[in-house]
Amino acid sequence: MKFMLTTLKIFYVFDQNLQPIPNPTDNDTDEVKAERKKRNEDEVMYRGHILNTLSNQLYDLYAMEPSAKAIWNDLEFKYQAEEEGTKKFLISKYFDYKFVDDKPILAQVHELQVIVNQLKAKKI
Questions:
Q1: What tens digit of pLDDT does each residue of 85-122 get?
Q2: Cβ contact 59:48 at 8 Å
Q3: Phi-psi region of 104 (alpha: psi -120 to 50; beta: other; left: phi over 0)
Q4: How far is the C-alpha of 68 from the C-alpha of 44, rounded, in Å?
Q5: Per-residue pLDDT tens for 44-89?
Q6: How far, in Å, CA of 46 to CA of 119, rounded?
Q7: Rounded to whole angstroms, how far apart are CA atoms 66 and 103?
Q8: Long-range interactions of 49-57: CB distance < 8 A, separation 24+
Q9: 8 A C-beta contact, residue 14 and residue 46
Q10: Reduced to 3 states, what is the DSSP secondary structure of residue 53?
Q11: CA angle 84–88–90, rounded 5-degree value
Q12: Could you tell me which residues come within 8 angstroms of residue 116 by beta carbon, excluding any fewer than 6 positions away?
């Protein structure tokens, strides 16, 4: 998602350091009006692309949220928490692994190697 939004040149909308565009006034230059219009269009496109990739259940949950940044933050928090749970699960699986007599040793070694490779892939 991040790659696609960057490719479309709209990921900047999420930038925490992005200065808000001031409210419209009668003295606005054409440049400020054009910037405001582009930012609003990019915000709508950003939100639409995020919602478009969600499953029906998640879409129903986030469709009423007007802010693309809020949707992005909520989803990022949700999936980072799941990632943390996965890491903890892998670590506990590694520490709790025990060899048993009723299974072939090579099959057990293979299971342990799979767990170790998953840990390496997650850089643990």
A1: 788 888 888 888 899 998 899 989 999 998 899 888 88
A2: no
A3: beta
A4: 8
A5: 998 999 899 888 888 888 888 888 888 888 888 877 766 777 888 8
A6: 34
A7: 55
A8: 49/1, 49/4, 49/5, 49/8, 49/10, 50/1, 50/75, 53/1
A9: yes
A10: helix
A11: 115
A12: 94
- Helix ranges, the chain (H): 2-7, 30-53, 56-62, 68-96, 105-121
Q: To which residue do tokens 């943390």 refer?
A: 84
Write the CB contacts of 45 (distance below 8 Å, at least 6 apart in sequence): 8, 10
Residue with tokens 């892939």: 121
Asked if residues 68 and 13 have their Cβ atoms less than 8 Å apart, the reply is yes
The answer to whether 21 and 35 are in contact (CB under 8 A) is: yes
3-class SS at 98? coil
At 75, the amino acid letter reads L
Q: Which two tokens stand for residue 39?
A: 């930012």
* Structure tokens, 53: 């990739």
Provide the pLDDT for residue 81. Answer: 67
Which two structure tokens, joined as six digits, stand for 104?
Answer: 């072939």
